């Protein structure tokens, strides 16, 4: 926003300079019998306050005109200096002021997501998280991206995410997830190591470029490691082999406005009394019309489409599917916020 305003003022400044040059040239040509080149030359040395001697002796009328031209030039110079100073001051003071407000907001957050890197992967991850109405704090060191983050009203921290103090500014101790989407694998590895030390309950998702680095990320403490090229290649191939199935899954998570058709629920949400139950015994859940299509136990082992007599164990989670109305019933019955 500030850059657009500054550019518009530059156009005004250039226009004024041309106008002053034209008026000065015409004035000198009118008052003195000189060529156009000499008139332009005298105007330029007057505006720039270089102070060379006049080409021809000036009449009293010319002297008065030159005095006025010099006064206008001084005012114009002051305008340009003020414009540049104001832009530099406003740009940095505005960003710093907003950063103070952001940091105060971030300090109060809990169970938020820290996103390191606002590149192509980070930008897409942010869009998806905002669709799910998740609180996200972005860490970005590239100054060119600050204005875009600021204009979109995104909580962001200026700095290098590989530094511990920057992660602390993002309130990493109270975050639930961290996504490291930087381009360099070494930087992502440093972030994983640092973040895990600060918050050992943190779930960490990061990107890697190679299979070798994938293993290193896992050893460092990352819960999930994504290989963008592999995921993209698999997706392209799947669109050839099973196009309708992939198209269905692509549109499944968000297809009815703001209602998500698939979601994950923890054991303690379905069984608030902390007693292990079968799916049949979940009366409150069964009234919603939603279906359980997946189950993950405490050891991260998955079961697909569990039977109705399947017992839900403590520390587990389930994958639920339903249409818009069924998901609304689920949110109402269990008082879910998202």
From TrEMBL:
Keywords: Membrane, Transmembrane, Transmembrane helix
Subcellular location: Cell membrane
InterPro entries: K_chnl_dom, NAD(P)-bd_dom_sf, RCK_C, RCK_C_sf, RCK_N, Trk_Ktr_HKT_K-transport
Keyword check for Transmembrane helix: yes
Membrane topology summary: Multi-pass membrane protein
Keyword check for Transcription regulation: no
Membrane-crossing residue ranges in chain numbering: 10-28, 34-52, 64-89
RCK N-terminal domain: residues covered: 110-227
Protein name stated in the entry: Potassium transporter TrkA
Originating organism: Psychroflexus planctonicus
Lineage, opening ranks: Bacteria, Pseudomonadati, Bacteroidota, Flavobacteriia, Flavobacteriales
């Amino acid at each position: 926003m500030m850059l657009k305003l500054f550019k518009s003022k530059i156009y005004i400044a250039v226009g004024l300079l041309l106008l002053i040059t034209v008026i000065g040239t015409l004035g000198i040509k009118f008052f003195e019998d000189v060529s156009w080149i000499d008139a332009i030359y005298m105007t330029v040395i007057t505006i720039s306050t270089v102070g060379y001697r006049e080409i021809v002796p000036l009449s009293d009328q010319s002297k008065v005109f030159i005095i006025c031209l010099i006064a206008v030039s001084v005012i114009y110079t002051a305008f340009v200096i003020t414009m540049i100073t104001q832009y530099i001051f406003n740009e940095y003071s505005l960003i710093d002021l907003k950063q103070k407000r952001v940091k105060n907001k971030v300090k109060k957050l809990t169970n938020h997501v820290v996103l390191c890197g606002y590149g192509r992967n980070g930008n897409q991850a942010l869009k998806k998280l905002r669709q799910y109405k998740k609180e996200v704090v972005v860490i970005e060191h590239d100054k060119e991206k600050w204005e875009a983050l600021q204009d979109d009203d995104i909580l962001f921290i200026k700095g290098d995410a590989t530094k511990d103090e920057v992660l602390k500014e993002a309130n990493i101790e109270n975050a639930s997830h961290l996504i490291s989407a930087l381009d360099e694998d070494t930087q992502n590895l440093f972030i994983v190591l640092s973040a895990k030390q600060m918050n050992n309950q943190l779930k960490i998702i990061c990107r890697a470029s190679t299979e070798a680095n994938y293993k290193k990320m896992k050893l460092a403490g990352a819960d999930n490691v994504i290989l963008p090229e592999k995921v993209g290649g698999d997706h392209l191939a799947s669109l050839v082999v099973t196009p309708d199935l992939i198209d269905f899954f692509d549109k499944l998570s968000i297809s009815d406005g703001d209602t998500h058709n698939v979601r994950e629920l923890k054991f303690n949400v379905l069984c608030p009394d902390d007693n292990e139950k079968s799916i049949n015994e979940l009366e409150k859940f069964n009234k919603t019309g939603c279906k359980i299509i997946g189950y993950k136990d405490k050891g991260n082992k998955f079961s697909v489409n569990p039977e109705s007599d399947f017992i839900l164990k403590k520390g587990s989670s389930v994958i639920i599917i339903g249409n818009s109305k069924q998901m609304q019933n689920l949110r109402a019955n269990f008082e879910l916020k998202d």
